[in-house]
Amino acid sequence: MPPKLAPRLWVLIMAALLLAGCGTWWQQQQAWQRRQAQERCLKRRSAIEQQLALIRSGQQALRAMAAQIYRPTPKPKPLDPQLASRFSQLDRQLDEERYGAALTAWRLDEQQRRKRWQRSQRERRQRLEAQLNRHLEALAGVDPGLVSSGQPDLAEIARLSDCGAPVR
Questions:
Q1: pLDDT class for 60, splitting at 50, 70, 90?
Q2: Is the CB of residue 139 less than 8 Å from the CB of residue 147?
Q3: What are the phi and psi torsion angles at 5 (to 5°)?
Q4: CB neighbours of 45 closer than 8 A, spacing ≥ 6?
Q5: What SS3 state is found at 148?
Q6: What is the C-alpha R_g of the chain?
Q7: How far is CA 59 from the centre of its chain?
Q8: Is 167 helix (H, G, I), strand (E, B) or coil?
Q9: Given this model, what pLDDT does residue 5 score?
Q10: Please, what's the b/e burial string for 56-91 (b: 16 or more CB within 10 A of its CB; e: otherwise)?
Q11: Rounded distance between C-alpha atoms, residue 76 and residue 54, angstroms
Q12: What pLDDT does residue 78 have?
């Protein structure tokens, strides 16, 4: 017949078994929480990288647009003096009048063309800036600290993108 254990001893044995079981459960919970944090960090890093790519593309498009210059159409060619010397005075005057009219028409056309180009550039720049602002807002939506003074905060991006694991 086994010896009868004291009730206190039973309580101690049960407590020890319970604590032993809780220890592994606690470790499993911590490991699960670490995995969840790692997955959230990787998703956040992916979202950050996606928005940064769009922002860089938008910034590049704005720089390329700023580098564009207006190129006028060629001016009408003036009269060749050697060729004009072969013609009569009246023919030279008529040619000069035609050249003057062509030059005036070219200037008017060119002025309108330049205004259309400037308007088009202004509208395009506004669209690109609005698009860039939307991408910056989306980046700030991931975490407000990622955008500072209308620009990505690279130090904060590096900090939040460090998930403690190699990039997949």
A1: very high
A2: yes
A3: -85, 145
A4: 160, 161, 163, 167
A5: strand
A6: 38
A7: 6
A8: coil
A9: 60
A10: eebeebbeeeeeeeeeeeeebeeeeeeeeeeeeeee
A11: 44
A12: 82
